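Troubleshooting: if your tokenizer reports a length mismatch, compare against these two reference records.
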Amino acid sequence: MSRGINKVILIGNLGRDPELSFTPSGMAVCKLNMATTESRKRDDGTWEDITEWHRITVWGKTGESLGQNASKGSQLYIEGRIHYDSYEKDGIKRYTTEIVARTVRILGRREDSAGGAGGGSGGGRNDGGYSNSPSPVDQHGGDGGDIEDDLPF
């Protein structure tokens, strides 16, 4: 019997390039800032976009691969857990909230284009600069994929 569930699923875009570093023992750690946006209807009937920013940490080979393959603007699917922490700085206790990712998929990439908005001819992509096919990033420490792949429906 489970004592509780701590699960978060986010789909959003990176606000800046991932920050990849390594612990003294050689473990990769990748820090991300990702934005999610949802539209809400105001009382007057107009719509407004509400953007939330999330701090995300990805460890191990998954983090290393993400740090090498994602960039500012990349659309990601993140599955993980919420982690709360605190520390003291200058005698003041501070609190942090982050998402520790377990599964990451790169859903799309914004291509850097020297020509601006794109849309030209010559064999270029016609999808607005995003790839249509999801790109898995070494999930669950490389165990071969999602559990959902085994479901019959």
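Reference record two:
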Amino acid sequence: MLKIGSHVSLSAPNMYLGSVMEALSYGANCLMVYTGAPQNTIRRPLSEMKINEAIDLMNKNGITKNDIVVHAPYIINLANPDEEKRSFAVDFLTKEIKRSFKMNAKQIVLHPGSAVGKDLDMAIKWIADGLNKVIKNTEDLDVLIALETMAGKGNEVGRSFEELKRIIDLVQNKSRISICFDTCHTSDAGYDIKDNFDTVISEFDKIIGKEKISVFHINDSKNLPGAKKDRHANFGFGEIGFQSLLDVIYHKDFVNIPKILETPYVSDKPPYRYEIKMILEKKFNKNLISDILEG
């Protein structure tokens, strides 16, 4: 069964229940959410999150644990050369995984890290060391850590399949590590998502193994392949294009893997209901932007 959804908000008063309600309003059957603000460590107590009500609503609508994705906050950088900041990253990611487990999420997406000191080899070692500590801290929890493919902006680690493989090779419990495949990021990193997705996946399979992909971020790109800029575009309105993204979504090897839209809002309005409709109907709507604005 095709799994398609989007990033949704989490805010008072309905909290996690509101996240599920929002996803359902878009016609989604999977979703991605932060457990709190991505830029800081402030978190609501789990008792205030309306988790049981959210899970009940998911169960009534056929949304399972495998359809729930959490995104780790941006402030986590396991590759920071400052030991104290790496220790903070380990502790905070540990807490986020524990929250994700309580929220019945199967996986948490993580940007691997930024080589602030510009030493890629050390950055990869520090990321793997941090992951080993986090996995040890949460060894009794069934939550995957999905390393995201990155666009190559600045000193990002994970801009190539080889860099991700180097991290995984250093992780002791590899069963807890998976990959979040972002279409905009991989295109911006130089992979030909637009015209040769099958070739890209074949390369990924040889290096990492396609079975490691546990979630897709489905985003068009405002940039030509290889731009290394990470600027998302609405579905079908960027340099990758409608049919190429549709081919990713409906690829036979990944139909049951959650596909999460992270496309830009249009004048503060979410585009997801309209984009999901296009995807399910497999029909490009050239008037998407105006429909969103009028809706």
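Descriptive notes for reference record two:
- The longest helix spans residues 83-102.
- The beta strands are 4-7, 30-33, 68-71, 107-110, 144-148, 177-182, 213-218, 220-221, 232-233, 259-261.
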